[in-house]
Every structure is written in C-alpha cells, then in structure tokens.
C-alpha cells in the first residue's frame, strides 16, 4: 500500500491555499517590514551590503531565531519522527544530539570570521583570498552542491506531506512552495528575512506545544505519559525493534539509532560548515553577540526534533494498531516510512482535520523559512563569488542588487527542478538525507581550517576536499555491494553503506588536509583576509544615502519645508537620525568598527566558544547517551515521565530564546516606532488644519 492509497484528510484546495496563500501573505508582510525598516532605521534594503549581510548588525536573539529557522528543515521534523517510529525513544534523541553539536562548533568559526575576515560577504571570499581561483572554484562546487541537496530535500519532504494530507499534485507543490518564498526574499533581503524566520519559528514552536499538550495531557487515544508508556511497551512485544535491548522502544540501547546518530553528525557537519546560510548569519551578527547567538541557537534547536518526535513519532508507534491510524489494519510500508509520513499519520489519528491543518502549517513554515536561507545564501555566492569576482569586479551596488534578485529567482527554479528529478527517479527524503554527508563531508574540515588554521596550505585544502569525496563514494558503494550483493536505491540507502561513506568522507578529508599541510605548511598572515572589502564597502547602509535625502513623490521639497514652519516641524520629526533607535544603532556601529580594527578584543569570546562547544558536545553525545547505551537500560514508567517533562521544559526554553529575547532586544525600536507614528499623525493633522 502506497501513500497514494491513503485518502487525504483535507481537500485539495487546502493544499493550494496554504502553499500559495500563506506564501504570498508573508510576501506582503515582508514588504511592510522593509518599508518600516527603511523609514524608521538607518538601514536601507536598497543597499547591497544591507540586502546580503544585514549591515553586520543583527543582535543575538534574532540570529538565534534565524539559526533555528535555517536548521529546521522538513527533514528535521519528518526524519525525527521516522527514526522515532523505527528505533523508539532513542531516535529523537540521536536526531537532535547528532545535529545540534555542529551549531555549537560553528560558534568557533563565527568568532574567527569576526576576527580574521570581518568584512567578507561569503566564506568563499576567504578561500579565494587565501588560495586563489583554483581552490575557490573547488569550494564553490561543494557549497552549491550542499545548497542544492539541502534545498531539494526541503521541497521533497514538504511536497510529500502536502500531497499525503490534501491530495495536491506533488509537482505543483514542488514548484509553488519556493514561489512565495522567492518573492519575499527579493523584497526584504537578509534582515527582513530574519524577521519572517522569527515569525515562522514562533509558529512552529507553538504548534509543537499544541501537539505535546494534546498527546500527553488531554487526547482520548493517549492523554498521559503513563498511557504512552503502556502503549509503547505493548508495541515492543508486538513489533520488537531489531538491535534494541529486548526489542524495546523504551531504551537508548539501540544499535541502529546509534549508527543514525553518527551519520547525522557527519552529514550535519557538511550541511552546516559548507552552507553559506550559516556563514551568512555569522557575518550578519554583531561581533560581540555572534558566539552567544550560535550557542543559544543550538540549545534552542535541540528542542524542535526532540520535542516533536518524542510526541508525534512515538504516538505513531503507539497508535499503529488503533483503528484511527490511517494505515490500519496494516503497518506502514517501507516507502511511507522513508517518505517521513509517520508524523503526519499520527497527527491525523490523534486530532483528525485540526491535527492535519496544524501539521501542514508546521511543515510549510519549516520549508519556507529554511528555503529562504538557501535562496539568499546561493544568491550571495553567485553575486559575490561568481559575478563580482570573475565577471564584473567593478560592479556598482545597483548592479549587485539586480544580480542578487535575479539569482534568487533562478535558484528557486533550480531547487524545484532538482526536487522533481529526485521524485521522478524514485529518490525519497530518507535516502537523500543519509547519502548527502558522504558527498560533501570531505570539504568540511578544509573549509573550517581556512579561517582558523594559518598553516593549512591550498594543496592540503583541495586534496582533503576531493580526496574525501572519492573515499566516501568508494566506501559507500563497496560496502553496499559487499553486504547486500548488488547496488540499488534500496541497498545504497541502508545504514551500513551510508555510515561507511559518511565516516570515510569526513575523516579522509580531515586526515589528508592535516597531513599534507604539515608536510608543506603555509604561514598565512590574517591581515590579508582582514583586508577583504576594507577599501570600499559595497552598498550604503548608513542613513545619509541619496535614497534618504530625496523627498519621495508627493512630499514637499527641502526648500518648501524651510519656508513652512509646520513642514519644518514635520521634517524634524520624520528625519530618522533624530530617533533614539538610530542613535543606538550608530553607537553599536562605532563599537563594532573598533572591534574590527582590534580583533584581539574577541579573544574572550573565542575561549567561551571553544569551551562551550566542547562541553556541550561531550554532554549531548557522550555523557548522557553512552552510559545508558552501555548499561542496556530500559526506561521505567517514572523515568519515561521525567524524559517527557524534560522535553516540555526544553521546548519552553527554546520558545523564550527565539520568541521573547528578540522582542526584548527590539523594545527600543518599537518604542521609537510608536512615538514616530503618533507624532507624525499629530503633525499631519496640524498641517491639514
């Protein structure tokens, strides 16, 4: 039985309404945000520097929300439920822990970017300045490959769920999802994209809490942690899990979940370290808040797959034998599981149409927010590392903005085309998710060492990236052939071949770049990369640009304002340089420039990044899970209840970090905005009278 035989819970029109309607709703919201930003702050979206880097002035709360948004793919939600369905309680933990530590590690790179290349637009500009055009081209290939794989995964997962829940044509969903996203990214640029990402993340967390409270407090089918424990214990007897202690769903002693965790770790290293979207957030942040933002973002993101899958993933296991489950009386097929449908089916069984609508909104928010990150990331690479680097080095800000807009639209089509190709040839979300790391893992450490290790040579960097790719492909295919006797989509997507390929790719890249660089080391002077874009900042984020000095059509000219006392008053109130928000922004900009000139002031932040990344990685990937794995511990009723309570606490922490903190940081702006609106209305009324 395939997913097509499951009757859609929602009408087809609901799918089109969500995909098209909500997409363009956010486009309108983005237009409003851009207008407010241009009117009440000193940053103009008409400057390419602001459009692509948010003028490097975003605070920690919004950066953390952006990180959570960028890392919350459809795969984050769907795959976490899949591994919960397959491996039990260990699946959500390893899914979250295996993909959180990369964010903690990236905090180190974020700090080093601010120290060693504070004015860059992309991490590829650093590679070009250090190693020249040849290595630059190699890493452009890996960066774009990463973005294509990630973006097509987003659309594959999102379209599969939209089709399963509404019956909407899968190819229509694939092409319509990036349409609205492309529109709002073109309208707003990076900063306004952060604000929409904030909205998406807030909605996702509220809906996750809705599912959690329903499943564990009120739902008639489960309704409490005790009932969930009993149903999982029954499922362990009826459908024991291979490789788990006593076949139980209630243990961290799960061989295949551990394998998945290692694959997740290797794959996640590539998708974070080689995705320009994460470098872009480091570049956009203030130097003093970059490390804190990544540490906060990593902690907050852990809650999403952990809380979501501990709820819906385990609910799918518990309700498989319940008549309310969509596949009853049959179990889910391998295809349905690999497509990530366990979570959606659980939502349907638990809550019917309301659950379907809530899940559809959740996945749409996840897909669109992470898609926006991919769109502007690829746009930056093609604009600054291809167009400006090789085609028109003296491009004006207006030309760069135009190219950035075009590239956003082009990549929107490209990501949809690749998703259609994967779907047509039978490549599903699960296969692509497991295989991706072995394709890009070789370039992980060469890219990271470019910004943190001055002795890495260009030969070490290139050989590590390409050697890792070759080793990953060989290990993957040889293991599949050895274990299963043939090479097919099924055998190459199994745990052992993908584990071998991922580990071979990442470790070969690390070993080759280290050994070759030690044999013939470089001695790079970081002052060279600190000089990137130092001579002339592209764009005009400051408040004295010509676009601000000219009176908009219909408003009085400067001469008219001087001749009219009331218009002079209006001019004084409306000039954004008088706003306290702008004064604060200029003060922060001066502080940031001082740090750019004296990067030693970030040594404390670098030490904090190293210590926190090491401590949190050890805690999540070793101290908590390994003792429970080695002891073969099976959860008791009380321990499981405590585990569920922890998932609730973590989601509330994430909600506070990504929803409340950005509002608190922006309190001054909202105060000035309301003051400006009130005063402006009063002055306009006086003019009319």
TrEMBL record:
Is the keyword Transmembrane assigned to this protein? yes
Region feature (Disordered): 537-561
Annotated membrane topology is: Multi-pass membrane protein
Q: Where in the cell is it found?
A: Membrane
Organism's domain of life?
Eukaryota
GO terms for MF: spermidine transmembrane transporter activity; urea transmembrane transporter activity
Q: Which Gene3D superfamilies match?
A: Sodium/glucose cotransporter (1.20.1730.10)
The reply to whether Ribosomal protein figures as a keyword in the UniProt entry is: no
Record's keyword terms, sorted? Membrane, Transmembrane, Transmembrane helix, Transport
Q: Name the GO cellular-component terms.
A: plasma membrane
Transmembrane domains' residue ranges: 14-36, 57-76, 96-113, 134-156, 168-190, 202-222, 256-274, 294-319, 357-382, 403-425, 431-452, 459-479, 499-519, 605-630, 642-664
Family the entry assigns: Belongs to the sodium:solute symporter (SSF) (TC 2.A.21) family.
PANTHER family tied to this protein: PTHR46154, SOLUTE SYMPORTER FAMILY TRANSPORTER (AFU_ORTHOLOGUE AFUA_6G03200) (PTHR46154:SF2)
**The protein's name in its UniProt record:** Na+/solute symporter
């Amino acid at each position: 039985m395939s997913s097509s035989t499951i009757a859609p819970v929602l009408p087809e029109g609901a799918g089109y309404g969500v995909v098209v309607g909500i997409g363009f709703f956010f486009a309108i919201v983005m237009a409003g945000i851009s207008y407010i930003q241009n009117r009440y702050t000193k940053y103009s979206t008409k400057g390419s520097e602001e459009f692509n880097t948010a003028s490097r002035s975003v605070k920690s709360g919004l950066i953390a929300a952006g990180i959570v948004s960028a890392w919350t793919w459809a795969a984050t939600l769907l795959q976490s439920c899949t591994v919960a369905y397959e491996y039990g309680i260990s699946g959500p933990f390893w899914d979250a822990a295996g993909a959180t530590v990369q964010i903690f590690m990236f905090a180190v790179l974020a700090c080093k970017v601010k120290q060693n290349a504070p004015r860059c637009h992309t991490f590829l500009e650093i590679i070009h300045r250090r190693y020249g055009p040849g290595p630059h081209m190699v890493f452009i290939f890996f960066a774009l490959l990463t973005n294509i794989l990630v973006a097509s995964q987003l659309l594959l997962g999102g379209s599969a769920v939209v089709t399963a829940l509404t019956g909407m044509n899968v190819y229509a969903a694939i092409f319509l999802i990036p349409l609205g996203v492309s529109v709002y990214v073109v309208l707003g640029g990076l900063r306004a994209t952060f604000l929409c990402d904030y909205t998406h993340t807030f909605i996702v967390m509220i809906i996750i809490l809705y599912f959690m409270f329903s499943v564990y407090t009120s739902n008639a089918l489960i309704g409490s942690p005790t009932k969930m424990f009993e149903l999982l214990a029954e499922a362990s007897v009826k459908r024991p899990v291979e490789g788990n202690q006593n076949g139980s769903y209630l243990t961290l002693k799960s061989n295949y979940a551990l394998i998945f965790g290692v694959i997740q770790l290797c794959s996640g290293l590539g998708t974070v370290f080689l995705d320009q979207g994460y470098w872009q957030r480091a570049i956009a942040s203030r130097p003093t808040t970059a490390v804190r933002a990544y540490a906060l973002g990593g902690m907050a993101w852990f809650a999403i797959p952990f809380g979501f899958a501990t709820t819906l993933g385990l609910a799918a296991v518990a309700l498989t034998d319940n008549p309310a489950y969509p596949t009853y009386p049959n179990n889910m097929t391998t295809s349905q599981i690999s497509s990530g449908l366990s979570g959606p089916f659980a939502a349907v069984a638990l809550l019917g149409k309301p659950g379907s609508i809530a899940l559809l909104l959740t996945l749409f928010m996840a897909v669109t927010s992470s898609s926006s990150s991919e769109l502007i990331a690829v746009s930056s690479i093609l604009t600054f590392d291809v167009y400006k680097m090789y085609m028109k080095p003296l491009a004006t800000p207006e030309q760069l903005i135009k190219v950035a807009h075009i590239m956003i639209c082009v990549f929107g089509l490209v990501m949809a085309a690749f998703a259609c190709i994967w779907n047509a040839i039978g490549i599903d979300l699960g296969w692509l998710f497991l295989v991706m790391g072995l394709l890009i893992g070789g370039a992980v450490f060469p890219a990271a060492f470019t910004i943190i290790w001055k002795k890495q040579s260009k030969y070490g960097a290139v050989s590590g990236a390409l050697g890792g790719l070759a080793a990953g492909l060989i290990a993957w295919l040889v293991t599949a052939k050895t274990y299963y006797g043939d090479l097919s989509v099924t055998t190459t997507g199994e745990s052992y071949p993908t584990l071998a390929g991922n580990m071979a790719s990442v470790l070969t890249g690390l070993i080759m770049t280290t050994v070759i660089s030690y044999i013939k080391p470089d001695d790079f002077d970081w002052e060279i990369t600190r000089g990137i874009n130092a001579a002339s900042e592209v764009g005009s984020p400051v408040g004295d640009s010509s676009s601000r000095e000219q009176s908009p059509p219909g408003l009085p000219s400067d001469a008219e304002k001087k001749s009219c006392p009331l218009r002079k008053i209006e001019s004084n109130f409306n000039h954004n340089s008088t706003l306290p928000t702008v004064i604060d922004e200029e003060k922060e900009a001066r502080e940031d420039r001082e740090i750019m000139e004296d990067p030693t002031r970030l040594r404390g932040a670098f030490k904090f990044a190293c210590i926190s990344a090491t401590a949190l990685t050890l805690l999540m990937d070793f101290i908590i899970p390994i003792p429970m794995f080695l002891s073969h511990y099976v959860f008791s009723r009380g321990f499981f209840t405590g585990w569920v309570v922890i998932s609730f606490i973590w989601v509330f922490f994430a909600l506070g970090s990504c929803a409340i903190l950005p509002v608190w940081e922006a309190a001054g702006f909202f105060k000035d905005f309301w003051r400006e609106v009130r005063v402006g209305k009063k002055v306009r009324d006086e003019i009319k009278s």
